[in-house]
Amino acid sequence: MTCADFEKLIALDIEGDLPQRKAARLGEHLETCLTCQEFREKLQASQALLKSLAQEAADEAALREVRQRVLDEIPSEAAPHRFPAWRFALAAALLAAAIFAAVTLWRPRGHGVSKSIEAPRQAATEAGRPAPTASEYAQAQTEKAKHVLRQRKPLGGSLAASVKPPQAEQLTVKLVTDDPNVVIYWLVD
Amino acid sequence: MDLSELALRMTGSAPEVECSGSAEESVQILKRAIAGDRVAFDQIILRYERQVLMTAWRLLGSREDAQDAAQEVFLRLYRYRHRIDEKRALLPWLYRMTVNVCHDLRRKRRRDDALAAGEIDLPHFAYDPTGEIARGEQRRIIQAAFRTLTEKERAAVVLRDIEGLGTKDVAGILGSSETTVRSQISMARVKIRKFVDTLEKKRS
Fold first, then answer.
1. Mutating which of B154, B186, B196, B197 best tests the A interface, going by the most A Cβ atoms within 10 A?
2. Does residue A151 lie in a domain region?
3. CA B131/CA B138 separation, integer angstroms
4. Structure pTM?
5. How does strand A183-188 pair with strand A171-176?
6. Containing domain of residue A42, as a range?
7. Chain segment B123-165, per-residue pLDDT in tens
8. Could you give the ipTM of this predicted complex?
């Protein structure tokens, strides 16, 4: 190896980058070579100069300018989306569904009865009879339904044949009438 | 110790914000920045701007170019933030991006080294090897010496000797083997020494 080769090893050894085996060989050479010893000393000086740059203070004005330029380039919509827009949409849809369900299902009882018996009350008033109460009206409606069912012809076996037994997954409403031959099934899909 | 801590400890030039924040806090800030939090992203810039700008400045040799490069690095960080692994230190990614951006900028502007053009321009100052050299003059000497290095040698020596990273970390950032990086560092140190020798002879 020439001194030029050893210079490269010195350049690594000076910062501890040289493997131990090569460092030992370099040590042996340095013991006898004044030129390489001098090069090593000079290299130490230039390395100190180089590493002193690490302590160099940054140019604050340059840093500030870069920071501002970067932030100016970033789109303003980059604001944090802690609660994404789709969640707002979902929440609004759920709220709307809840309101719709409440309005559809909730009907005040008193209001419904008075509305259904409004017509008979009006008719009774016009005929000069006393207007029926809500309970009287309900009882009359029940009797009317029973009367209609009694007047129907018995369907006999034909109905039994046409009506299929309810399936397990279907909601079935069974209505038993006074006539043992008449059984009404409501099959709700 | 992760790479950023190592770099900061070795250079001894970490900004206060880096030292004050815990690792967990850093992860949280990075997570928020990745999620698009502009304030967190601003904190990321504040935390790493010095390393990015100064590295770019040393690689390019010009303040204006370094500012352009640093701006591009942080914009790429924002653009590709979803690709960042929040569990890993951010600084190596930033160093890698800085080296790449500086390479692109240099190629784009076709500003070849003065040495390549045969125009060695020695710094205009009175070199005094026995006296105290002013900090600004030191920078000019090194910056002039850097012109004698290849782009890879310059990147290797800046990251290893000025930013204080280990050879393995430098190899990871530059995408080279440790052997290659050691060779580049060795060549760079010898070239810088010889440049200073030449300067001394011209002045004496």
1. B186
2. no
3. 12
4. 0.61
5. antiparallel
6. 3-55
7. 344 444 444 556 677 778 888 899 899 999 999 999 999 999 9
8. 0.73
